[in-house]
Amino acid sequence: MNLQGKTILLTGGTDGIGLRLARQLRGKGALLIVTGRTPERIAAAQAEGFEVIAADLAGPEGAEAVIAGLAGRPIDVLINNAGMGAAHDFREAPPLEADDERTLWLNVHAPIRLIGRLMDTLRARPEAMIVNVTSGLAIAPNAGSPLYCATKAALRSYSMALRAQLKGTGIHVLEAMPPLVDTAMTAGRGSNKLSPEECARQIISAMESGKDEANVGMVKVLRAVYSVSPALARSIMLRF
């Protein structure tokens, strides 16, 4: 896809990978509409010249706020980037149901809800794209964040089935699978993290080349191992 002149709705675009995507996509000539929920980050993104729709997508009202903010405007690309991980490790403490619910909404329900609400708009465009940002953990889970892994695996399955449904239409479905990226969400977790700038660059490259999957950074290695032996890939990842 040539991104010049495309109108892109990007969720979670005021921080982390999303903010870097917004900046680089704007550099490609795209028109960005981003979502955010933190007033300070919203203000900072607006100061950079981005249009921001305030919406907390970790609940049922969030998707409705986004649709209302669009006010019927057509979009060419929907990027479901917003995501979160809740502490869900019984070896340390029982998980909090409220945090689990927010994670399920943000990582699974909100992307599916937005896709459903915006499908007619996307179908009406000469060329359109849906980008679902999952994770390398959607391929093989780790032991430390089972709920996060489950939500990303769910969105991966949804993306694969949706791509099959939309085959032959003007809507392309891209799944982006980042590795551990150096963002606020991963603070204090692991080392050798990929920079959010490089993560964004690789996702945009996949958008431009029309790929079905963007295996970002070390996810390329995990994907290769999984293609040879799914059991080995799972065994390696479950050590963490």
Write the layout of secondary structure elements.
Elements: E1 7-10, H1 16-27, E2 31-36, H2 39-47, E3 51-54, H3 60-70, E4 77-80, H4 97-123, E5 128-133, H5 146-165, E6 171-177, H6 196-209, E7 213-215, H7 219-228, H8 230-237
Parallel strand pairs: 1-2, 1-4, 2-3, 4-5, 5-6, 6-7
The rough form would be described as globular
Number of continuous helical runs: 8
- In the CATH hierarchy, what is the superfamily? NAD(P)-binding Rossmann-like Domain
Radius of gyration: 17 Å
The side-by-side strand order for the widest beta sheet comes to 3-2-1-4-5-6-7
Biggest sheet: strands, sense, closure? 7 strands, parallel
For this structure, the CATH topology is Rossmann fold
- By CATH reckoning, the class would read Alpha Beta
Give start-end ranges of low-pLDDT stretches: none
Beta content: 5-15%
Question: What this model shows, in words?
Answer:
- The structure is a single chain.
- The chain is an alpha/beta fold and 240 residues long.
- The protein has one domain (7-237): NAD(P)-binding Rossmann-like Domain (Rossmann fold, 3-Layer(aba) Sandwich), CATH 3.40.50.720.
- It is 46% helix and 14% strand.
- The protein has eight helices and seven strands, in the order E-H-E-H-E-H-E-H-E-H-E-H-E-H-H.
- It has a seven-stranded parallel sheet, sandwiched between helices.
- Strand 4 (77-80), helix 4 (97-123) and strand 5 (128-133) form a beta-alpha-beta unit.
- Helix 4 runs parallel beside helix 5 (146-165).
- It is globular.
- The mean pLDDT is 95.
